[in-house]
Amino acid sequence: MNRHADKPYPVERIHQTPSEFARRLGIRDSARRLVDFNRNHRFRHTKATSLLNAGVPLHVVQRYFGHLSPAMLMHSAQTLAETHEREFLRYRKITADARELATDPCDLYDMLELDKRTDRILPNGLCLLPPRQACTKGNACLTCDKFATDATLS
């Protein structure tokens, strides 16, 4: 509503005001470009991300934004890796027969994260070459700088 509370602001004005404000104050992004506020929806993305990274439960943030499903919310939120790890480690890991998993949760998290970045699990270690890159070493894994192992595999 306008300052007299009798009419809504014109949509054009809602889009122009923040951009004009940014131009006058010289507000710039991390790439030193003038911030473009013509996409006001960006504020919602930032707020959703901030709330989730601060530990506010997903269902609370979902309700705050009026989203019908968590998928809608997660589409707009860009949570931090630290948030992912914190939430993963917060819960006990249980096997199919209801026993607590013997693997250390931190190790399990590391394995799952590594699995996202590699498609080369070897009998005696891991190839850390990004999946989109082709290997030029053939079978010379043990001398490759992308090969990783630990004491349990030696």
How would you characterize this protein structure?
This protein is mostly helical and 154 residues long. It folds into three domains: 11-77, no CATH class; 80-117, no CATH class; 119-154, no CATH class. The chain is 43% helix and 5% strand. It contains six helices and three strands, in the order H-H-H-H-H-H-E-E-E. It has helices at residues 11-25, 41-53, 58-65, 70-76, 81-90, 105-117, and strands spanning 121-122, 125-127, 147-148. The chain has a three-stranded antiparallel beta sheet, with no helix packed on it. Strand 1 and strand 2 (125-127) form a beta hairpin. The longest helix has 15 residues, at 11-25. It is elongated. The model has no long low-confidence stretch (mean pLDDT 79).
